[in-house]
Amino acid sequence: MYTTDALAGEPTSLPLWFTVPNQFTEIDLTEPIGQRMRRINEQAGVLPGTDVSQRANAVFAQEALLGQLARAGAVYAAHCIARSEHEPHRIVTGLFTVLVQEPPGLSEQSMATIARGLHEPGEPSETLLLDYPAGQAIVHGEQRLVTFNGGTQSMRQAQVIFRLPDLQRLAIFSMSTSDIDDWEDFAGILDGIARSVSFTPPSDPNSALRNALDGD
Fold first, then answer.
1. Domain holding 207: CATH number?
2. Which residues of the chain fall below pLDDT 50?
3. Which of 90, 169, 180, 215 is the right S-S partner for 84, CB 3.0 to 4.6 Å?
4. What angle, rounded to 10 degrees, do the helices at 52-71 and 33-45 form?
């Protein structure tokens, strides 16, 4: 496990720390898409018994949503490529991202009001208010189709949304996967990350936890 500082800009502008499981690999959001797709394909190919079709699906699932999240202002991204816990012959992929947004008039809205605004009538989604160590958060889950290079794929996504201490910004922790049968496992990972969120740096200077911007 390690602590990541998902700052966008100066280190003092966004104090935000959280832990990510070791099986997730950080993604360079500035990396050219072709290079990133080749690397994901190589990582999937390391798993014994995988075929071309499985690797292609893994690449598609990652890029289909990553591009949208990068355009939306993601400040951190990491992915997991592993074998399914339920069907070991299948590859599963999960994408974890952190977005920071500054909605107009945020300081005047309660978390309950924001949560109600996320609900879209007729859409397969669910929104809850839950308490975490870092404070109250909105948990929003949905399933939707994403498009990449002319193809579409069903993705399931959950978000845990915190209001930052300045009351002007939201930190949105998101987990997405196209492997619906393994959704509960990925949802559990997201919940664990959300429980690690802190707005103050680690108190132990000798901790093995690291700050992603330090390059350690």
1. 3.40.1000
2. 1-2, 6-12, 206-216
3. 90
4. 140
